[in-house]
Amino acid sequence: MSRLVVVSNRVAMPHAHRAGGLAVAMRAALKESGGLWFGWSGKRVHGDSGELHKLDDGNTSYCTMDLSFEDFDHYYNGFANRTLWPLLHFRLDLVDYRRDTHEGYRRVNALFAEKLASQLREDDIVWVHDYHLIPLAQRLRDLGVGNRIGFFLHVPMPSSDLLAALPNHEVLFGSLAAYDLIGFQTERDLDRFQSYVRLYGGGRAFADGRMRAADGREFRAGAFPISIDADLIARQASAAVTRASVQRLRESLGSRVLAIGVDRLDYSKGLPDRFRAFERFLDRFPEIHGQMTYLQLAPVSRSEVPEYQALRRELEGLAGHINGRHAAPDWTPVRYVNRDFSHGVLTGFYRLAQLGLVTPLRDGMNLVAKEFVASQDPQSPGVLVLSRFAGAAAEMKEALLVNPYDLDGVADAIAHAHAMPMEERKERWHALHRRLRRHDITLWRRKFLEALEA
Ligand code: ADQ
């Protein structure tokens, strides 16, 4: 069996708390075949990038690299998060393109390739994650690396005309052809990539997933929707009800219905629109006043990027505005909390909620939608209100699907979920849950790796 090498911007070290679902999945994959996880160390240094740190844990090794303040700023805060992130989330209005950050992104990718190449064995299988590392395979090939290399894009692949707005897009997106397999979250993302390759790359896409770049190089692309460990989340959720913080939340609600939203504080998640839709709901359904509390958990994210600072201010204003207009001495309609919680607690919060509000403007998949469903009590499952523009919508048709730009439509869906008879809630939930259990995170990684090795 070949060794697996995982490459991602952040590495979840073996004993890190709060390892997310992806971290758990990658650790399990590494344990199965033995392997190496390579990425940024999380450390910014004065002086040069490139110092390596190594740690062995059983059959898995961790190798991480320091970045200088300037490299990190250009590569991560700059090109990855102020250029690519908005572009890939269809937000041309927020794209900030600068030659120096683009150059920094290329430089860091070349350095990743150089340092990684020195760690590789001949039959290693390499799996690269996400938009931070698009050119990595091309740089590895330049160094003579002939290994199997796969890439998974966690975020959406937008329409080709949007991609083409990026200066030198042919070079960046053309470099994807250096991978052997490219995985997307949904068939739609795959379609859009194939159109890009045809329209702008001078290449070809065949019905069986094979693709040919303009220079004749063959590679493959497919849809591999990511998922969660549904059984683990269900166990965590039913154990969580005895936790003090979950009990306190329950007591604080009294007989009120809980609607919950859980998102990184990111403009792709559609939080201002969601707050406004909730306000519209309060305006249009006064009879429900005092009966529902909306809890939004939104841990601060990318706080060095100006667009994220502006979003934070906007949400603080909106939460204050809605509560100022609608609250009563004994009722606060919106509870807005910028904190992280462990999954042990978070799943308990999901389980208390009768409504899950997941309304991103764009999202590669959105794992919160899946975690919400997996956490429900089968005897009284909550209702998921889900944006059509989340990758998850392709697999979760029994949710109440909404257009997050249509505030009245979202307000209607909240009212519909609030009034939904228990029998219908159960029917919808069973269908969603069955599919989740069949298609869990283990199946996701196995399918991708099988395709990469094939
Ligand atoms: P994200 O944009 O981070 O991921 P998402 O898929 O929803 O979005 O995952 C967020 C994770 O963070 C979830 O596991 C959630 O539980 C956790 N989380 C959020 N708020 C939290 C809080 N307050 N406390 C604790 N945990 C919290 C990117 C893409 C997605 C894609 C994933 C995986 O943007 O579209 O689904 O990668 O591929």
UniProtKB/TrEMBL annotation:
InterPro entries: Glyco_trans_20, Trehalose_OtsA. It catalyses: D-glucose 6-phosphate + UDP-alpha-D-glucose = alpha,alpha-trehalose 6-phosphate + UDP + H(+). The keyword Transferase applies. It is an enzyme of class 2 (transferase). It comes from the Bacteria. Probably involved in the osmoprotection via the biosynthesis of trehalose. Catalyzes the transfer of glucose from UDP-alpha-D-glucose (UDP-Glc) to D-glucose 6-phosphate (Glc-6-P) to form trehalose-6-phosphate. Acts with retention of the anomeric configuration of the UDP-sugar donor. Homotetramer. Belongs to the glycosyltransferase 20 family. The gene is otsA. One of its GO terms (molecular function) is alpha,alpha-trehalose-phosphate synthase (UDP-forming) activity. CDD domains: GT20_TPS. Its EC number is 2.4.1.15. It holds the Pfam family Glyco_transf_20. Keywords: Glycosyltransferase, Transferase. It comes from Noviluteimonas lactosilytica. The keyword Transferase applies. Coiled coil: none annotated. This is Trehalose-6-phosphate synthase. Pathway: Glycan biosynthesis; trehalose biosynthesis.
